[in-house]
Structures are given as C-alpha cells and as structure tokens.
Amino acid sequence: MEDAAPLLDAEAVADLVLLDPLTEESLLQTLQERFRRSDIYTYIGNVVISVNPYQSLPIYTPEKVQEYHECNFFAVKPHIYAIADDAYRSLRDRDRDQCILITGESGAGKTEASKLVMSYVAAVSSKGEEVNKVKEQLLQSNPVLEAFGNAKTARNDNSSRFGKYMDVEFDFKGEPLGGVISNYLLEKSRIVRHVKGERNFHIFYQLLAGGSAQLLQQLKLRQDCGHYGYLNQGTSSLPGMDDAANFRAMQDAMKVIGFSPAEVTALLEVTAVVLKLGNVQLSSSFQASGMEACSIAEPRELQEICELIGLDPGTLEQALCSRTVKARNETVLTTLTVPQGYYGRDALAKNIYSRLFDWLVNRINTSIQVKSGEQRKVMGVLDIYGFEIFQDNGFEQFIINYCNEKLQQIFILMTLKEEQEEYVREGIQWTPVEFFDNSIICNLIENSTSGILAMLDEECLRPGVVNEDTFLTKLNQLFATHKHYESKETQNARRVMDTSLPARCFRIHHYAGKVTYNVTGFIEKNNDLLFRDLSQAMWAARHALLRSLFPEGDPQKVSLKLPPTAGFQFKSSVAMLMKNLYSKNPNYIRCIKPNDTKSAMVFTPELVRAQVRYLGLLENVRVRRAGYAFRQLYGPFLQRYKMLSPRTWPRWAGSDREGAEVLLADLAYPKEELAFGHTKIFIRSPRTLFDLERRRQERVAQLVTLIQKMVRGWRCRTQYQLMRKSQILISAWFRGHAQKNRYKQTKRSALILQAYARGWKSRRLLRELKSQRRRCAAATTIAAHWRGYQARRTYRRYFRTSASTFLANFIYRRLVCRYLVGLAKNLPPLSVLDRTWPPAPYKFLGDAHQELKSIFYRWKCKKYRDQLPPSRRAQLQAKLCASELFKDKKTLYSKSVQQPFRSDYLGLKQNPKYQKLHTMAKDKVVMADTVRKVNRASGKTVPRLLLLTTEHLVLADPKTAQPKTVLGLGDIRSVSVTRFSDGFLVLHLKEVSTVGAKGDFLLVSDHLIELVTRLHQTLEATTGQALTLHITDKFSTRFPKGDMSVTVVESPKAGPDGPICKKKGSHKMEVLVH
Asked: Which residues hold ATP (predicted)?
C-alpha cells in the first residue's frame, strides 16, 4: 500500500485487511455501511469487492477515468478502474501478462464489471485510426455475444449463460492489437425449456421485435412470440429492455466487427431454424407389427425449415422420426416413439444453437485476432459463473461449482504465493499460514481414475442398462468414507439421520458450503448424444453455414467412435484455463448481489452473508493478514506521519528508512508490532495503524491551528502594509491635485490679462481701419459720380437719338443666339420615325421654328436614304409609289404596307421548268407571279403565269410554261381596280395594238398592289408616261363582241379564295368581292 488516507475510516474501512476485529459480522456491517454511502467497491488488499447497486451511479464518467489513470492503487477510493489501471500499467511497464478474474453469482454484475474493465482499458490506451478500430471491435463483441449467450433468469435480467474468457493482446507500447475469446459451457438446455418467469436467449426476442417485415418474411417468422413453442414457456416482454433497439445495436456491432451481409443473413437463418424446430409437432401411430411409430403432425413448419436450409423435407422427416442402427455389417432402420422423436428434435435444436454459438465466437476471433509473428503482451478477462446453490441443483450446477472450486484453489495459492514472495523480497521472516486447502474437493471431482466426472464418463460408456441409480450406487461405494461427500446411503452407514438429503441425491462439502445435487439427468446431459441420422441430414443441407456446423455428418467420414462427453470436454477446458491463469499475474473482482428483487440500493444481510461465505471473502482477508496487516513504502509512510516526531518535522535530511525508524522509536510502539523490510515498513495489527492515524489527526489539528494563526498574522500585516501604501498614494495624489489647481488658476489669470490687452489693441486698430475705409469709400463715390456725370453728358450729346433701335437689335440677336444654342443641345433622335420637336421658347420665332423642324426632318430622311443599300432603296421607292397610288383610295393598301415587295414569286432561277420562260423574255424581268384570268364568256377563272419585264407583260400557261399572250407596255391604255380589299383588276388595251382586237384582260392577283405599282414604275421608266389608274366600283370593258359593263359588289358570298364573277346577260358582269 502506497497511501492509506482514502482507506482509513473507523466505521467503514475501504480495505477489509484493516478491519478490526475481523469477524464475519464486522465484515458484513462494513460492506453494508459502505453500500449505504453508495461506495459499492471495497478492497481486500488488491482484490476488489463489487456490490451491485442496481442503478446507474455517476462514478464512470470521463473525469473519473482521468482521476484513476496512472494513479496509485491505494491513493484513491476503491474502484474497478483502479484494478484495471493497475493491471494495465503492470502489463505495459513491467512486461507482465495479466488476468482479471471476475466471479460472483448470477445478477451480481459480472458482465457489467467486464464491460467496465474493457471500456477503461480502451479509454486510457493510445489513440489512432487503427488502434481505435481494434478497440471498437473488441468492445462491440459484447452486444453480439450478449444477444446470443445471455438470457433473463429469475435472478438477473441479463444473465450470461456461458463462461467467457477474453485475452486482449497489446504491443510493447500498450496499444491493443486484438484478442481471442474462449467460451465455456453454454446453457443450451435453455433452448428447449426454461423456468416459468424466465426467458430464452435474447436473440430470439430481438429478432422478432426488431426484424423488419421483409426480413421476417424472408426467415418465414411471425412477430408473435407466443406462436413458438420454445418461447411461450415464460414471459416474452422485459420491462426496461428494448429488444428492437438491442437488435439494431447487435446488427451495428456485427458491421463494426466485420461480418458481411451474407454472413449475418446466414446466421439469422440458422437462428430461425432453431426457433421453428420447436413448432414441429409429432403424432403417434402404430405399424402393422404393432410397434409404435411417430410422424410429422403438421408438415408446414417442416416444409418452411427445409426451404430455409435447402433440404428435402422427406430427408429431415425421416431423420426426426426414425433412427439408423448399425450392428456389425448390417444397417437397421428403426422407428422412434413420440417421446424419442421429441428428444431427437430437442437435441437437434440444442446442438445447432450450441455449434452456431461456437461458430460465432470463432468468427469474432477471426476479426479481432492478432497477426502471427508479432511480439505481444496479454491481459485476460474472465467472466464466468459464480458458485450456485439452488433448491434443485443438477448437472449444470455441478459443473459450474467444480469450476469455482478450481478458481478458489488458484486464488488461494496465488494469494499466498504473492504474500510469501513479498516477505522474502523485503527480508521479513515468513510464517506459514493455516488455511483450508480445497484441493481435496477438486480431486474428488476431477481425479482421472476415481473422480466423480471419471465415474460419470465410465457409466455413460458402459454397455447394458445405464441410469442415474447405478451411477449413484457407484459413487456411494467409492466415496463411502470421504469426508466431503455424503448421500442417503453413506449417512445410513454412518447412522446419521438427515431429512434434508433426499434419495437420488448426493452432497459435496464445497469450500463455500454444502450443495446437494440431484443425479436425475446427469447421464443424458453428460452424453449429449445427437443421432447420426440428424447430423447427416444437416450435412446434406445446401445451407453453407449449417452444413459446416456438422462435419461428422459427411457419409465419407463416418466414425463409430463416440464423441467426448460434456463433462470430459469441460474438464479439459478448465484445465487449459487454469494453465493459462497460472501463467499470468492475477487480479480479482468479487461481485455480490445485495438483494433478490433487483431493487436499487437495497441490502439484504442474509443473502450477502451467504455470498460472503461461498466467495471465501473472510478466508481471503485472513490470508492477506497472515503476519502483518499493513505495509507501505518508507517514503510515503514518512511523508504522511513525519509530523508526529519533532526530529522528523518539518523535514528529514536522512534516508526514508532511517526517518521511519526514528519516527516509530519516538512513538514507542512494541517491537513485535513492527518489522522493517528493505523498502517497506510492516505493521502487524490494524490497531497500531489506527492509533497512528488518530495521533496524526490530533497533530494535524494542532498544525492547522498554528497555520491559521500564522495566516491570520500574515493577513493582518499585509492588510496594514496595503493600507499604509494606499494612504501614501492618496496623499501624493491629493498634493499633486492641489498644485495642479493652483497652476490652472494662475494660468487662467494670465490668459485673461493677455486677452484684455490684445482686445484693446485690436479695437484701436479696428477704429483706424474703419476710418480709413470710410475715407476710401467717400473718394470712390465721388469719383463714380463724376464719371457718371461725364458719361451722361457724352450720351446726351451722341447716342440718345438711336439708342432704342440699337438696344432692340442687340436684345433680338442675343435671344436668337440663345435659342439656336439651346436647340442644338436638345435636338431629337435621328430616327426617321421620331417626329418630336422641342417647343418654341418665343412666339416671334414660331415660323422659323417650324421651318427648322421641316429642314431637320428632311435632313434626317436624306441621311437615312443615303445609308440605304440600292435594293432596299428601290423597295422603298416602290412602297412610296404604292402609297401615292393607293393610300386612302383602296382598302387593300393598308394590308400590303407590312408585306415586302419580293418581285419574284415563281422562283424563276431556281425552278428549271420556268427557266425556258425566263429565257424567252429576253429583257429584264421586273415581276413574276401567278394570276387568275377571268373568262369573258363564263366568268370563270383560269391560272396564268404573269411576267412583267421592262418592255412586255407576258401571260403563260403554268403547266407548259408556254406564253399565251405577250403585251407590249405601250399597248396598255389604263388599269381599273376596285376600292375594296380584293385583287380584281382590268387591263385596258389600246385598240390599235396588235392584241387590242382581243379586248381588255380581267385578272385576279394576290399581289395587286405590288403588280400595279411595278407596272406603273416600269411604264413610267420606259415610256416616260404615268399609268392611268381608275379606282372605281363600276367600269366598262371592251371585248370583241362589244363593250361590257362590270359592276363590283361587296358581298359575304365571296369567299377568301377571291372574287366571284357572274355574267348578267351579254353586256353585264357582276363581280362579288369580300
């Protein structure tokens, strides 16, 4: 022990080694008092006792981790972090492999303790991406193993139903590299049956509650737990536990560990198979021979199981309802009865789940194991069942208690070994300690020739009728005189009457107390047989994971050798575990359950007393106190108690050992109470230590009083010096302030005198300047009047007669100049469409203003015309000509304004059909278009091609492109059109022309405006004469048979296709236009 300060408390010592007097009652009272104070951890030397509070306490925060990190084990309050830190530092700094043994009964908090140890080591070890990944994988293995290996029992809602030993491997820097997990004795019988009020393994409830509808459908499961025979034996819901959330956490943990989605799916499929096996019901029938046989009552469940694992339903049904027996060279197929069938079904379910759990542990090891070849240190954490004493104890309790006997044996031996090594190292004489050696009990159970397990294996392998009665008889014969074994038969032989020991039971006197075991089921559970037919059926499945769990099912590897028994396997596992633990430095955590109701902070003395006994805590304290109860290094001891001697206080100049010897000599303790080792002081009795502590507290009170006196004196002196310093400072500031005020007053007076003097001088100068300015002003006024007088006299003589005309002309010129300059600055935009003009500022400039507006607009138009290309100018000239001919005269004109004049509407150059016609025209083509010629006789129209050249007007057949009529421009006398929006026109020809004898032409054109405009321009350019244009609704035409009167009428009957011409007799024609 390095520092006993946190451990010394007369009412509730933190280290039970210092308990005085040491009795079972005082130990129990100490634990109860500490539990009442919420101190759930207590030491026995370097052993930690943990009492489950059944509630969360604020003692596991990151701040607590830092508090216990790198601290001295006994320098702080007892805590599980202290033992974890001590083990970790011993591993890292002293290169010693460590193991932490966590024991206690179900519900005592072993699983939580192992989690706290792992989380602390993860928190204090180095950081880094790869290191964090390893730590996360190690921590995330807990949710996965808890889901598949934990269950709710009557004593614990999250009870581990398997033993777990994890080796965490570190490199030389103390960084975790990985680990290996070993599991022991999974309680697979819980698969098929459990006590009322308990639950099956968590994974079944988590899968049904947290699995998605799609997943459950894929696994062919229902969400109702009551539907399944393996789950409806007890309660399904658990207050305070969210199965759905735990299922999601388990899936996340698998991802972190490295499970692939295919592996997770295969794992859940096998889990679903186990669950559904419980719903396979058998019915009884009789064969022709009269022998009873069984068959599947409802094949649906069997069918769904076979679909999940890829197996023929007939194969599985045959394996469940019959058995193949090989005798010599013959193979006989025998049918099973219903009880035998149910036994085979349950055995299959248990074997599948047990092997699946082993596969799960191996798969986790694959992810977290360390690469071979790396040098590493190991810290093992053992979380295994505590000693169990129930009302009815069976094979499982026998195996568990055997394991605890071995752990107690290693605990006693390792503790005594450590004590003896420390005594030898310090040069203190070792006194042999008397203690109960439980090796006789271990030998009773595990002796390879005459132990209980050996007898059980022998009975299981013996041919003939074998049952528990023959096994018990053999035990009674073999251990009749053994003082730690008794049964009803041995008691009768010793003439002992004990009604508490029933028949078919035997009792073993364990180190923790007497336990009575009922031998019912020992043979069956030790054999743990699975019919070969079922193994072969599982191997025949196409499900890769399930098939790998049953390698013995391969027909090519059939072996008639019986598999090892459950007892033999567990004994071998315990032997390997003990060998592993002996190679490491042990650290112990003993967990205690304070009450059976799982109530927060409730302490039941009788229940705790029983656990104190079978955990051997009193024995542990006695071993630790053998010889000397307290030891401490000389340095910390002298530092703590040096104030008790005037020769060592306040400081000691010699060595620490000499100072401790001087100190204890002055205190006059008996020599037999003390022993001086090489580095430590040893004190035999706790009373001596408590007397030391009492004297120290009294001396500390005296020293505190002295320190308070000195502090008060120092405080008063300091206060006085501060006040004196303040008074000097205030006086200095006051005198300085008075001198400043006096200086300011003197300066103010001087400034006032200076101001008055300067004012007097300034006023005198001002008076002189004003007098001078008045004289100058008077002289200026006189001179101005004189010059004015002379000017007026000259004006009257020369300018007075023509002054008004001169002034008027001057003013007029100024106004005109201002007007022109302003107009130049405000000219409108140069767009020809913009007719805006600024208003005239003066009325007398109105005519000039309008003239300038006209000039400016004409100038804009000329500038615009000069910029136009020749084609655009010709087109605009045509538009202007059309405007002069038709504007406000014909309705069709307004529609043609926006349409450009294209001239060629036939595409003469592009169309090869019309190229010949173009060639025949010889002169330049002005316009080419399609028109309709009105028949003079019937009024009907026929299409014609119209070509207007510089000298002719040609009408051609559109089909043959051959000219029908060729008119010279000089033959055209005039043109008549209507005032409506139609395209009707009449070409009046001269009578003396070559074609004039045929009469006038009536045409309909879709481009009337352009046609007449082009004709007008061409005629004017060729002959120099303008075209005579008549715009009227009634006109006369000349035909060969005489003149005809044409009347144009606007009518809705005329459609959009064009005018309708109707003959009204021989000399009248009516044209209907739209």
From this structure: 104-111
